[in-house]
Structure formats: structure tokens, C-alpha cells
Write a structure and sequence with these properties.
- By secondary structure, this protein is α/β, with parallel strands linked by helices.
- Helix content is about 40%, strand content about 15%.
- It is built from twelve helices and eleven strands.
- α5 links the parallel β4 and β5.
- The longest helix is centred in the middle third of the chain and has 21 residues.
- It starts with a helix and ends with a helix.
């Protein structure tokens, strides 16, 4: 949040930003409840559709802000196309790359101007520190952001910095294991009688699968899925043992989250319903445990 807030300092009252309609609830809260009152406007659109981005653009549009894959619906945005559109329209392209990390997806190489990471997640990797990172490919832009960062004091302590560096050392082997597990778990969920739909970009039937193959070297380890009935949600959250019912993601432990009451509670119900974040949706961050153990736990929890 400090990283995103620092980026928003680049904009002035009257500026307009086009934003992915499916994104982390904390980002939505920051935009709507903090920065909107300073005169910055936000339009939320399905950024997996370039035509919808183009339709949302106005003369005051200054940036496109995307999460890809998005949280929690796993929508995929074509970074190269969106970045090209932004550049041609004199806008900045900003990509939240938390889910795939630089190990699997490098938006700057695809034309993006700014990349954000919640370092709390995969980069730290152990659920023991909070951090945000900003990456840019322009020295002047970097200096502007550094000025804000040091002036506002949104900086990590030396120890937290060390924890992130420590986490990054094992990033590759963690993600390889996590996505190896994730495809097994996703395939199993597709066959479970109490699951109606699985959102995982590694599944060939996912609508963003082909774009993902072009712009990333892997599919990550984030899954969301719908269950048949709301009562099954409570059952799952009470029964899981190997998988932990908790917020956050990207650590070595498998975590399951209920977005409507946790990560996305700040988003109005009508908006949640429109994008698909219903009371039957669960989000799963797959860890490095044995895939068989994760599946066995979900099997006893789902019934």
C-alpha cells in the first residue's frame, strides 16, 4: 500500500486512472477512500479487454493500472498491448506483478513503465514481514519516486530489508514447487463434486491461458474456485488442517481465504457480485507441502 501510495503521488487533482475491475480490496480502498478526495478519478474496467480500456480513456487519463493475473478472479491482461496503448496515449502503464513475481513475468520487458510487488507475498515468501516494491525503467521517474519515499518515510527497516533479500534467494525453487503443486490441485478441484468452477491460469480452458504462455514463463500458484453452496464454504474453513484458513498468500504454507469477508470486504457488494466475487468463492494460495497432502486435506474438507 505504501508503494502504491507513492506512485499515486505522481498524479494531480483532475487526473484520471483506468484500473482493473478485479483487484485486491486494499488497493480499491486506497483509491476510493483516500485518493479520490484529492481529486484523482478512477474508472474500473475489465482490463483483459483492450477495447474496454480504450472506451474508458478520457482526455484527463494519465495511467492504466492493472493486476495480472487479477485477485481473486485470475483474469489475464495482455501487458504488451496495454502498455503500447498507454504509451501511444501519453499515459503510464502500471502493473501489479505480485502473483507471478519477476521469476515468471517481467512487465518492464513487455513495455510497462512501473511494476509493483507486494513483497509481503512471494518475494518474502515466509509470512514474516511486510514490504512493497516499485520497479521502473526510467531514471527520472525513479528519482521522483525516491523523493516521495524518503520524504514520507515509507521505507523498510534494515531487518525487514534483510528478510526480503533472504526470501528472494529461494524464490525460484519455491515457485517451481508451488506451481507444480498448483496444477495438480487445480486439476483435482475440477473433478470434485462440490466445486462448480476453477480459476487457474495453468488450465488450458482458462480464457487467459494462451496470453499467459506468451508473456510469462509459468502460471504461478494462485487458484480461486466456486463451491456449489455457501454452506460448503463454512465447512471447508472449519475442516482444513494442512491448509491454513488465513489472509495473505505466497508463503511456503498453503493458505485458503474467503474474499468476501477478508481481502475484498472493502469493495461494495454490487461491484463484487458483478466481477464474480460471490459468497461461494474461495481463494487458495498453494504452498510447498506435498501435493498429495494438500489434495487429501481439501478432499476431507470439501467432502
Amino acid at each position: 500500500m505504501a508503494a502504491i501510495s507513492t506512485i499515486l503521488s505522481l498524479f494531480l487533482p483532475g487526473d484520471h486512472i483506468i484500473v482493473s475491475d478485479d483487484l485486491y480490496g486494499g488497493t480499491y480502498r486506497l483509491f476510493e477512500e483516500v485518493y479520490k478526495k484529492y481529486g484523482i478519478g478512477f474508472s474500473y474496467v475489465d482490463t483483459s479487454s483492450l477495447s474496454k480500456i480504450e472506451s474508458a480513456a478520457t482526455g484527463s487519463s494519465r495511467a492504466v493500472f492493472v493486476e495480472t493475473p487479477s485477485n481473486p478472479m485470475m483474469k489475464v491482461t495482455d501487458i504488451k498491448k496495454v502498455s503500447a496503448f498507454a504509451k501511444n496515449s501519453n499515459m503510464l502503464s502500471i502493473v501489479d506483478n505480485t502473483f507471478l513475481t519477476p521469476y515468471l513475468q517481467r512487465p518492464l520487458e513487455l513495455g510497462a513503465d512501473i511494476v509493483i510487488h507486494s513483497g509481503t507475498k512471494y518475494l518474502g515468501g515466509h509470512n514474516d514481514t511486510l514490504a512493497g516494491l516499485i520497479v521502473v525503467n526510467d531514471d527520472e521517474l525513479a528519482e521522483r519516486l525516491k523523493l516521495v519515499q524518503k520524504s514520507e518515510g515509507a521505507v523498510l527497516s534494515p531487518f525487514d530489508s534483510w528478510l526480503i533479500i533472504r526470501g528472494i534467494k529461494t524464490l525460484g525453487i519455491r515457485i517451481e514447487k508451488q506451481q507444480e503443486n498448483a496444477i495438480k490441485v487445480a486439476q483435482w478441484l475440477c473433478l470434485n463434486k462440490n466445486v462448480t468452477k476453477v480459476n487457474y491460469i495453468g488450465l488450458p480452458e482458462h480464457e487467459g491461458h494462451e496470453i499467459s504462455k506468451l508473456q510469462a514463463s509459468g502460471f504461478g500458484a494462485m487458484i480461486s474456485f466456486y463451491v456449489k453452496d455457501k454452506s460448503i464454504v463454512e465447512q471447508v474453513l472449519k475442516r482444513v488442517q494442512t491448509v491454513i484458513y488465513a489472509e495473505s498468500l505466497g508463503g511456503v504454507e498453503s493458505l485458503i481465504t474467503y474474499p468476501v469477508v477478508q481481502t475484498h470486504s472493502a469493495i461494495p457488494e454490487d461491484v463484487r457480485e458483478r466481477i464474480g466475487v460471490t459468497d461461494k468463492l474461495l481463494r487458495l494460495s498453494v504452498g510447498i507441502e506435498s501435493a498429495e497432502d494438500i489434495i487429501s486435506d481439501l478432499e476431507q474438507a470439501l467432502g
